[in-house]
Amino acid sequence: MRTSILALLALTACEEVQPFLPTVQFNRLEVEDVDFEGARVAFHFDVENPNPVDIKLSSFSYQLGLMGTEFLAGDNQDGFALEAVGGSELDLPVDLLWEQAWDTVQATRGEDFIDFSLGGNFGFDSPIGEILLPYQNQGDFPAVRTPKFSLKNLKVRQLDLWSGTAKVDVMVGVDNAHGSTLMFNNFDYTVGLGGHDVASGLIPQFAQVEGATEQIVGLPVAVDLVSAGTSVYNAITGNGRLNVDLLATTDVDTPFGVLPLSVDENGDLQVEQAD
After folding, report:
1. Which residues in 194-207 are b (16+ Cβ under 10 Å) and which e?
2. 2-142: in CATH 2.60.40.420
3. pTM above 0.90, yes or no
4. Topology agreement, domain 2-142 and domain 148-273
5. What residue ranges do the domains of the chain occupy?
6. Dihedral through CA 25, CA 26, CA 27, CA 33, nearest 10?
7. Topology of the domain comprising 148-273
8. Backbone angles phi, psi at 245, to 5 degrees
9. In whole angstroms, what is the distance from residue 42 CA to residue 89 CA?
């Protein structure tokens, strides 16, 4: 029986034999794991084998395009057995790095998803060699981009020379390139002024930044001017410039789940008196 079925498959030029060829249909894209570094996704296919015997899938090639630009290509030669007279699910796992993706493709600002195309060939064994079945599918792909933090300036809210203390705001820019609003929670930070750590803390709800916008957020810091050093004292009391370090971790609520983010920023900032 197996010989007769494979012989029929070999006669692919005959119209009446075509129903014996397996059929392939794209089912879904599943994001299995994602963070701001990269993602592991799986493309799921449904493959129907109308024949009463198992057929071996000898090869599986693919080309993944993002926004009309080819991004990844590969060829799986491991093979895959299709069950007789029934459906089988075939999975194509793909690991990618966002930095590599956005170096190749210019993601649209203000979009959470971008267009993808996936095409290639399924190769099936036959007595006359490999029979290739082409496939081509399109859909939406997650466009995960790391929020950008930047240090703007330093505003003095309160200065008490008698007690030698000051309350300042480190003005932090948070840029969100996604279409959806991002929420930054559990902001665990350390701030350094003039090369010395002067404050640390945890802010449960740090910022809520709307899509495709940059928001300036004030990070409140209490400074002991006596222990902070001469350069810090002179800058804060005289509207000078001051080197500022910001180290932080935060949980970012995104359209793709809550993702951890690390922040490491340094800048020579202008010190200004708050109005």
Report:
1. beeebbeeebeebb
2. no
3. no
4. yes
5. 2-142, 148-273
6. 150
7. Immunoglobulin-like (2.60.40)
8. -115, 140
9. 12
Whole-angstrom CA distances from 130 to 3, 60, 123, 124, 258 are 16, 11, 6, 5, 45
Task: Report the alpha-carbon distance of residue 194 to residue 248 in Å, rounded.
Answer: 18
* Ramachandran assignment for 79, one of left (phi > 0), alpha (psi -120 to 50 degrees), beta (any other): left
Place of tokens 């190749």: 104
Per-residue pLDDT of the chain (275 residues; tens, 9 = 90+): 333 444 444 434 344 444 467 788 889 999 989 999 999 999 888 888 776 767 677 888 889 999 989 888 988 656 566 666 677 788 888 898 999 898 888 777 899 999 999 999 888 776 667 878 888 999 998 999 999 999 999 999 999 989 999 999 999 999 999 999 999 999 999 999 999 899 999 999 999 999 999 999 999 999 999 888 888 999 999 878 999 999 999 999 999 999 999 999 999 999 998 77
* Token representation of residue 162: 């008698």
What token pair was written down for 32?
Answer: 């299995």
- Positive/negative CA dihedral, 98, 99, 100, 102: positive
**Partner residues linked to 154 by β-bridges:** 170, 271
Using CA atoms, how far apart are residues 266 and 168, in angstroms rounded to an integer? 17
> 23 to each of 15, 51, 117, 180, how far by Cα in Å?
15, 11, 19, 38
